[in-house]
Amino acid sequence: MVRVVLVDDQELMRVGLRMVLDAQDDLEVVGEAEDGAGAVETARDQRPDVMLMDVRMPGMDGVRATELIVGERLAKVLVMTTFDLDDYALSALRAGASGFLLKDTPPDDLVSAVRSVHEGDAVVSPSVTKRLLDRFLRESGGELRDASVLDVLTDREREVLVNMARGLSNGEIAERMYLSEATIKTHIGRILSKLELRDRVQAVVLAYETGLVRPGR
Questions:
Q1: Sheet of strand 76-81: strand arrangement
Q2: Nearest to 80, CA basis, from 164, 132, 6, 133
Q3: Are residues 120 and 155 in the same domain?
Q4: pLDDT tens-digit profile of 100-124?
């Protein structure tokens, strides 16, 4: 059972999310909060698997809450926003969120996203991910990290990372590389372990930061 906490300053939004998630046999909403401070407190108390986090809230916003929750390894965070290039969403990714969804995401996609975050998979569309990362690098002044951090990867693992950074799903990577999807998942697990990364989003960001993949290319 995947245990979920809902964080949003609008009660109606939380009610709607609870209805969608509690209708699933493998998902259970175990708590709610209406601001960032409440989110951190609830995370410490409930130790959920995934938190659905609004980023724009009064008091402590979702970005700071995400930073604290991820920093204490209390839960994985999936942030929700109204705009696909929201500065708050971008900051939340920097703070350690595993991805983000738009608030008008269809129910089936929301359920799939929660499951994916729990499993450590990708949860944002390739087009939105690419635009966010392009912007992330532009705002950092284009300064790249030392690419030698990637030397621990095999050629095949490096190829998988490139395809991840291009926004391809596991199935699409498998098809392109003529490998099974299970093999791709194994490679991704090894990439995360070798690079000491928390999830797929961090791996994609690192690929951009080291110049393995360049914005717009």
A1: 27-33, 2-7, 50-54, 76-81, 99-102
A2: 6
A3: no
A4: 888 888 899 899 889 988 987 756 6
Q: Are residues 16 and 110 in the same domain?
A: yes
Helices 181-194 and 170-177: crossing angle in degrees, nearest 10, is 110
pTM of the model: 0.73
Domain that holds residue 197: 136-209
- Structural domain includes residue 11: yes
Q: Mark whether 68 and 143 lie in a shared domain.
A: no
148-191 confidence digits (pLDDT tens): 999 999 999 999 999 988 878 788 899 999 999 999 999 999 99
